[in-house]
Design goal:
five-stranded parallel β-sheet; Rossmann fold; alpha/beta; 10 helices; single chain; 50% helix
Length: 224
C-alpha cells in the first residue's frame, strides 16, 4: 500500500520498511474517526508519549520549494534509510490532493490532519521525513519533532524559492493565484513569519544549486 511512498536503498535491511508500513496502515484504517479526537489529545496513537530522542528519525523542514523531497530521497539512498514524503502520504491516505483539502475544508482542517499524521512517526525506528512547509508552525509540531528526532532546516533564499515555485505553483494552494512579483513578496513575508520555528531546528543547512555537495554535507551532519 505504501511502497510508492517509502523510498529506500536496495541495500537497506528489509525489516525496516515493513514495520513502518504496518504502523501507517493501522493509522489510515481509522483516520476519519480519529481527526476530531486528535485535536483534543496528543496521546491518541501511542500509550507512551515519553520524549525519547531517536537520531535515526530525521525530519527535513523548510519552506515549500526548498527541496525537502528531492534531498530526502537522495539522503535516504546515501544513508540506506527509508523515506516518506509527508504531503504525498497524506494525499494517498486521504485519497485526494492537498489542494482539494484546502479548497473544501480550509487550512485549519488540513493543519489538524497534518498533526495527526506527524504524530505517527514517534515509534518508527528509522526514517527520513520530508515535512510540509508549514508543518513546524502549528500545534507545537516543531517541539514534537525536536524531542522525537533530528531536525534539519533546509534554508533557501527567497529568490531561489520563487524561481522554483513559479513553475509549480498550480499545485501549491497557498501560492496558486499569485503572479511573479506577488509570489516573491509572499515568500519573503512567510519566511519572516516562520523563521522563529525553522530556526529551532537542530541543524541548519544553506541550500544552493550544488545538489551533490549538499547531500554530502547533510549526511555528514546527520551521522554526527
Amino acid at each position: 500500500m505504501f511502497k510508492t511512498l517509502l523510498h529506500s536503498s536496495v541495500n537497506s535491511p528489509p525489516s525496516k520498511a515493513p514495520k513502518f508500513q504496518d504502523l501507517l496502515e493501522g493509522v489510515v484504517e481509522t483516520a476519519n474517526g480519529l481527526l476530531e479526537a486528535l485535536e483534543q489529545s496528543d496521546h491518541l496513537f501511542f500509550e507512551d508519549e515519553k520524549n525519547t530522542f531517536n537520531p535515526n528519525l530525521i525530519f527535513l523542514i523548510g519552506f515549500m520549494g526548498s527541496g525537502k523531497s528531492f534531498i530526502g530521497k537522495k539522503l535516504a539512498d546515501k544513508m540506506q534509510m527509508p523515506f516518506c514524503d509527508m504531503d504525498e502520504w497524506i494525499e494517498r491516505s486521504e485519497k485526494r490532493s492537498i489542494k482539494d483539502i484546502f479548497a473544501r475544508e480550509g487550512e485549519t482542517y488540513f493543519r489538524a490532519l497534518e498533526k495527526k499524521y506527524l504524530r505517527t512517526f514517534g515509534q518508527v525506528q528509522e526514517l527520513i521525513i520530508a515535512t510540509g512547509g508549514g508543518t513546524p508552525c502549528f500545534f507545537n509540531n516543531m517541539d514534537y519533532m525536536n524531542k522525537k528526532g533530528l531536525t534539519i532546516y533546509l534554508k533557501t533564499n527567497p529568490e531561489l524559492l520563487a524561481e522554483r515555485l513559479l513553475t509549480e505553483k498550480d499545485h501549491r494552494p497557498l501560492v496558486a493565484n499569485l503572479n511573479q512579483t506577488e509570489l516573491l513578496d509572499f515568500i519573503k513575508k512567510k519566511l519572516k513569519e516562520r523563521s522563529s520555528y525553522y530556526d529551532q531546528a537542530a541543524i541548519s543547512v544553506e541550500i544552493n544549486q550544488n545538489g551533490e555537495a549538499m547531500i554530502e554535507e547533510i549526511a555528514r551532519y546527520a551521522r554526527m
